[in-house]
Amino acid sequence: MSIHESAYPARWWHALEDGRIQCDLCPRDCKLHEGQRGACFVRAMRHGKLVLTTYGRSSGFCIDPIEKKPLYNFYPGSSVLSFGTAGCNLACKFCQNWDISKSRAMDTLMDAASPEAIAKAAVARHSRSVAFTYNDPVIFAEYAMDTADACHAEGIQAVAVTAGYIHAAPRREFYAKMDAANIDLKAFTEAFYFKLCGGHLQDVLDTLVYVHHETACWLEITTLLIPGHNDSAAEVTQLSQWVAQELGPDVPLHFSAFHPDYKLLGAPPTPAATLARARRIALDQGLHYVYIGNVHDRVGDTTFCPACGKAVIQRDWYEILDYQLTDDGHCRHCNAAIAGRYGHYEQPFGARRIPVRMAREQA
Is 270 helix (H, G, I), strand (E, B) or coil? Predict the structure, then answer.
């Protein structure tokens, strides 16, 4: 099928006795009539089969610092070719990328690119990895997985930035092809997930446990702290305890600042003090790598050695100011291993953001 066609054969579905089909990709289990789209808006029933309507097309490509994903313990200082499509399988009222994830008019606006073209563009731009981000790659899993295969053929890593809302069978296949993932743990109560996201907490916890314990994919977690909704000391403590007990102390946890957006305009921005308190709580629960995002906080941006306590990667936003790790990821102060994925460190990419027009690249 041509990369420019609007319907690519999708996987993970089955036919129902009443003539509908059911999508088996995520816990929404959308049941579709002919011509109907799922809650994600991009998976649809056409001619009795499930198709992915956004395969091969993107809302845009950009070269970013890997720290922006955010991934702080995965090849720090490297650049990543980032892209997304449209739609989402959650319905977060606070979505910070709602113009992309909630779009219903992206089909004519997308930059077309085959998996092979994306991999070659990453090589040409000297990016170590390609990230599926901006909207959730779970809903365009077939495209993301094919692109991951193309990237691996070129020696490029694949990164998923996702909410982790996916069924067990596709989860096994999807994360087997990912080298790193930042998964949103949006809160630690079922009420938050149900009322503000239209999903369920346990499905995300199951994904976190699976990715960390059953795959080689490097995992980091992000929680957007929303004042009055998921930022209490008690909830942050419970979340941090769960990460420490179920995943271990070496999984990095990012607390990110909220700004009013989409349908949650009444909540105020997250105070810096709330983020600093959350970081202290998580460190007190035994986590080794706890970061603060979306605000200026050099301490919260910095990676510290859990053995000697000294800074090994000092950051200011996405800029790396000092790097004290060996090529194999050991602290230069005490030689303790720092959890993550590392390689030869040269000039860091920095805080630049470089748009890439893939249609022009392929011309």
Answer: coil
> Buried (b) or exposed (e) across 32-43, using 16+ Cβ within 10 A?
beeeebbbbbbb
**Average pLDDT of the residues in 94-104:** 61
Q: Please provide the DSSP assignment of 50-89 as one string.
A: EEETTTTEESEEEEEEGGGTT-SSBSTT-EEEEEE-S--S
Q: Look up residue 28 and give its DSSP letter.
A: T
Q: Above 50 in pLDDT, residue 1?
A: no
pLDDT band at 362 (very low <50, low <70, confident <90, very high): low
CA distance 149 to 133: 17
Record the tokens describing residue 326, joined without a space: 């060996």
3-state secondary structure of 336: coil
Whether omega before 27 lies within 30 degrees of 0, making that bond cis, reads: no
Beta carbons of 162 and 72 less than 8 angstroms apart: no
What average pLDDT does the structure give for the chain?
A: 93
Map out the domains of the chain with their CATH numbers: 8-52 (no CATH), 59-361 (3.20.20.70)
Instruction: Give residue 268's pLDDT band: very low, low, confident or very high (50, 70, 90).
Output: very high
Instruction: Determine the average pLDDT of the residues in 298-320.
Output: 97
